[in-house]
Write a structure and sequence with these properties.
Elements: E1 8-18, E2 21-27, E3 39-42, E4 45-53, E5 58-63, H1 65-70, E6 81-86, E7 105-115, E8 118-126, H2 129-133, E9 143-146, E10 149-152, E11 154-159, E12 162-169, H3 171-176, E13 187-192, H4 194-205
């Protein structure tokens, strides 16, 4: 369980393909604090640490086919950066929103621009009636996780088989996350609000 408050960025230092899985080696400032079996969100995808080298500040995670299919992790190359967050502790404040680390799908950035100090982003994603019935949609002023960052929804819309969502971020978030690298055409990960998913599924099954 995560809060969507990104701690820092991790950089890909090695990639190893193993059948349908991919083993990623990352380095980041808190890598020497990690242990095997701990959970870390990478661009919003919850992954388990399978090995670590504290001296080198490196660790390895394995991404299976399902996670690769639903996320942008399969597009990573050596040198790329991902947003990382360690699992939430129950005695801490929930500063973002409840993020499971179970990415629902990807979206494509259609617009990225600075707005007098802050930053505005617009994203497009596939949307069908079936997906909406499962809670894969956004509501105005609700929450959405984009590359693992907890953000407030602006201007949600659905047109045909496409959904749209906009978010605004402050300069600090732009600087400490990989939003600084997002531009028109960039693929990002979306996780919709878990409460909305349960309510949507309940409404659908109650018909």
């Amino acid at each position: 369980m995560f809060s969507g408050i990104v701690e820092t960025m991790a950089q890909v230092v090695a990639i190893e393909h193993d059948h349908t899985n991919i083993h990623f080696t990352f380095t980041c400032p808190f890598a020497d604090e990690l242990d095997i079996d701990q959970s870390v969100a990478h661009n919003g995808v919850c992954l388990t640490v399978v090995s670590c080298d504290k001296a080198k500040k490196q660790y390895v995670v394995t991404v299976m086919e399902e996670s690769l299919r639903r996320s942008n992790l399969g597009d990573l190359r050596v040198g790329d950066y991902v947003n990382v967050e360690r699992s939430m502790q129950l005695n801490e404040r929930l500063d973002g929103h409840i993020v499971q680390g179970h990415v629902d799908q990807t979206a494509i950035c259609t617009e990225a621009r600075e707005t007098d100090g802050s930053w505005y982003y617009r994203f497009e994603y596939d949307s069908t009636k079936e997906m909406i019935s499962r809670g894969y949609f956004c509501v105005d002023k609700g929450s959405v996780s984009v590359n693992g960052v907890s953000l407030t929804v602006c201007e949600p819309d659905v047109q045909g088989d496409k959904g749209y969502v906009s978010v605004c971020i402050i300069p600090y978030t732009h600087e400490v996350t990989n939003f600084k690298y997002i531009e028109a055409g960039t693929k990002v990960n979306l996780e919709f609000d878990i409460i909305g998913k349960y309510l949507s599924r309940l409404a659908f099954l109650s018909k």
